[in-house]
Structures are given as structure tokens and as C-alpha cells.
Specification:
Strand order of the largest sheet: 1-16-15-13-10-9-8
Number of strands: 17
Shape: globular
Number of helices: 4
Strand content: 35-45%
Structural class: alpha/beta
Order of helices and strands: EEEEEEEHEEEEEHEEHEEEH
Helix content: 10-25%
Number of domains: 2
Length: 251
């Protein structure tokens, strides 16, 4: 891989070892210098399989004097035989997807729009927000993005816990008129998964809504990314498990 293939480039990152993750937002990390720092953890979920003590991690450092914590936990290395980096900074997926949309890099959506708008208000009361609205084509395309980090036997799973917010977003996509395209995009923040499956066992309500959304025409688009300490590369879409068609067939 060369740096020219990166869709997103990280600022210079600092290597360390995870010592403790606690209170959802905090992680104690020992840097290569031996210094023990506390980093901000943007991912407030359980992060199943991503908090093994003494795992190698990467953090970024901010020069903003107003920040309470200067360091941000960006990624963790998992796996023994074929280790991979997993992105855990939930502030990044929407930024990266926006770059991909602006560059028309996602084949399932490319050339169907000319404008990309972020954080668009919608719904009857105007209080709901969708991550992206793509316009300028035959119809508007509404895109909601979900960060996906859990993997089991090479299968990416979302969600990894009960998520009332995720349930709400699926329902809102279903409630949109059929005159627009509705897309649930799963940002798979690791390169070792070629298959995606909804995490029914972690949130049965979400699983039921997921199945209902597919039946009602919501496009399910799991997108794979390779995370490295230098940057993020888009690898293409993933296959949906337990169905007889790929994501491409849904579009």
C-alpha cells in the first residue's frame, strides 16, 4: 500500500500499550517513552474484543490548550497470527464517508447525485437529522452511517449492544417516503471482515427493525475499510450474511 491510496490520512500518531479502559470515555495508555497518559475514548459502547490489556494502540495529540485531555485513542491492534488495526474513534467515520461521497468512490451510489449535504434536518417536526442527503440526481438519497468494530470469525456485526438510538434511526429511514432512496451504511472499521451480519443477539429489537427495513426497501450498504497508523483506505462493500444476494444487488 502507498500513501496515495489513502482516503483519509492521520496526523502523526503515537504508539502505546493499553493499560486500562474505564468510565467509557477514558483509557490509560503507556507510551513507548514509558509515560502513562490518559486518553479520550470517543467510542462509548462496550467495544467487545477491543479492550485487551497490553494491546498495542495508537493515539493522536491535540495542541488545543482548552482540551481537558490532549490525547485521543484512535485505534487498537487485534489478532495474534494476522493482526489488524481497528479504528475506534467514532468521530472519524462520518468525515471519511463524506470524503468518499464527494469523490464518488462508493460504486453503489456513484453518479446518482451531484451534491452532498451533511447533518440535514428532516421529519415532520424537523428535529431529526440524517447524516447525509445526496441530491441532484433522479431522487434524493438519505444516508445514515453506523460505525462497526465488532467481528466474530471474520464477520462484522452491528450493533454490539442494545442501541435505542440505532433503533430510532432505522425507524426514521423506514418512515421516509418511497420517492427517496434510503441507505443504512455500516462503516466497517477493520480489514479482516468480508461479511456483514446484523447483531440480533445483542439487540433483538434492532434486529427486527433491520429485517423490516430491508423488506421495506431500505438499502443495506456495509463498507469495508483498512485502518493503518498512516491512514484509512476504502476496500469496497461487504457481503450480507444469510442472504442470497450481495449489497450491489440491492441497489
Amino acid at each position: 500500500m502507498t500513501i496515495d491510496t489513502f482516503l483519509y490520512r492521520y496526523p502523526p500518531l503515537i504508539s502505546g500499550i493499553l493499560k486500562k479502559r474505564y468510565k467509557r470515555f477514558l483509557a490509560d495508555i503507556e507510551l513507548e517513552t514509558g509515560e502513562l497518559i490518559t486518553a479520550h475514548c470517543a467510542n462509548t459502547g462496550p467495544m467487545l474484543g477491543l479492550c485487551s490489556i497490553d494491546s498495542r494502540v495508537m493515539v493522536s495529540k491535540s495542541d488545543n490548550p482548552k482540551r481537558k485531555l490532549a490525547y485521543t485513542w484512535e485505534m487498537i491492534e487485534v489478532g495474534e497470527e494476522n493482526p489488524v488495526w481497528v479504528g475506534i474513534n467514532t468521530a472519524l467515520p462520518n468525515k471519511i464517508i463524506k470524503l468518499a461521497l464527494e469523490k464518488q468512490l462508493i460504486p453503489e451510489l456513484a453518479q446518482q447525485y451531484t451534491q452532498v449535504k451533511s447533518e440535514v434536518k428532516f421529519g415532520h417536526d424537523g428535529k431529526s437529522r440524517i447524516d447525509f442527503v445526496l441530491s441532484g440526481g433522479d431522487c434524493d438519497i438519505y444516508v445514515e452511517v453506523k460505525n462497526t468494530t465488532l467481528a466474530e470469525n471474520g464477520v462484522a456485526l452491528f450493533p454490539d449492544t442494545e442501541t435505542t438510538r440505532g433503533q430510532k434511526h432505522l425507524q426514521e429511514l423506514m418512515d421516509l417516503p418511497s420517492s427517496v432512496k434510503r441507505v443504512m451504511l455500516y462503516f466497517i472499521a477493520r480489514s479482516d471482515c468480508t461479511v456483514f451480519e446484523v447483531g440480533h443477539k445483542f439487540d433483538r429489537t434492532y434486529g427486527k427493525l433491520f429485517d423490516e427495513a430491508r423488506e421495506k426497501g431500505v438499502i443495506i450498504l456495509p463498507c469495508r475499510f483498512e485502518i493503518t497508523p498512516l491512514g484509512v483506505e476504502y476496500l469496497g462493500s461487504s457481503i450480507l450474511k444469510n442472504v442470497f444476494f450481495s449489497v450491489v444487488d440491492l441497489v
